[in-house]
Design a protein that fits this description.
about 70 residues, mainly alpha, Transposase, 4 helices, about 65% helix
Length: about 70
C-alpha cells in the first residue's frame, strides 16, 4: 500500500494535468500501437536485418493497419 500512496502523492503536484488528461477525448492509442509494432519488429529481426529491410517491413505493417476510409462499395 505504501507504493500506491507514494504514487498518489507524486501525482498531487500535477493534479490539473492529471484531471485534464482523464477528461479529454484525445487518445495516443494509434501512436502507441505503431511504436509497439516497431519495437516488436526490431526484436524479431535483431541481428538479422539492416535498416532498409526493417524500414520496408515497418511501412508494410503500417499500411496494412491503416483504416480504409472513403471506399465505396460496388
Amino acid at each position: 500500500m505504501a507504493g500506491l500512496a507514494g504514487y498518489a502523492a507524486g501525482l498531487l503536484p500535477d493534479l490539473d494535468a492529471v484531471v485534464y488528461g482523464m477528461s479529454t477525448d484525445w487518445s495516443s492509442g494509434p501512436v502507441e500501437g505503431r511504436v509497439n509494432d516497431l519495437k516488436a519488429l526490431k526484436r524479431s529481426m535483431f541481428g538479422r536485418a539492416k535498416s532498409p529491410l526493417l524500414r520496408k517491413r515497418l511501412l508494410l505493417i503500417a499500411a496494412s493497419r491503416r483504416p480504409r476510409t472513403g471506399l465505396k462499395s460496388p
